[in-house]
Amino acid sequence: MWLWTGVDHFKPGILEWVVGDRSAETFQPLWERVKQWNCYFYVTDGWKVYPNFIPEGDQIISKTYMTRVEGENTRLRHYLARLQRKTLCYSKSVEMLKYSISLLIHYFKFQDIPIPYRGEVRSCSATKGDRFI
Questions:
Q1: Residue 87, exposed/middle/buried by CB under 10 A (0-12, 13-18, 19+)?
Q2: Are 65 and 43 contacting, i.e. CB atoms less than 8 angstroms apart?
Q3: What are the pLDDT digits (tens) for 65-97?
Q4: Residue 96 in domain
Q5: Residue 125 pLDDT > 80, yes or no?
Q6: pLDDT value of position 91
Q7: Residue 129 lies in a domain
Q8: Is residue 45 part of a domain?
Q9: How many domains does the structure of the chain reveal?
Q10: Total-model pTM
Q11: Is 111 inside any structural domain?
């Protein structure tokens, strides 16, 4: 199982993501969304599928510039045990993994968790000083 993430250097958080294997078929839906950003260049880790999508000359392969992506991935692994390496917590369901990632990214962005309540969606947001028991 592989988590592909797309970040923008000038915007906080993970903006796009997809879960699957490391194939071109998995990367394509992510690329369709990311290419709409109309970036001058794309920083990657040099994985072999990128040249099939990213125009020649628009890809920069650099570990130095990947620190932003790696930082976001580290933050995901910190808060979701199912993404950590060498752990007993793992996802038996790809669907539940996607829900967990989606909920965490939503929380990072809005500091709020949508809670369904009898057909409605309410939110539960913590403010400074709130305590939960």
A1: exposed
A2: yes
A3: 888 889 888 888 888 877 776 666 666 778 888
A4: yes
A5: no
A6: 67
A7: no
A8: yes
A9: 1
A10: 0.71
A11: yes
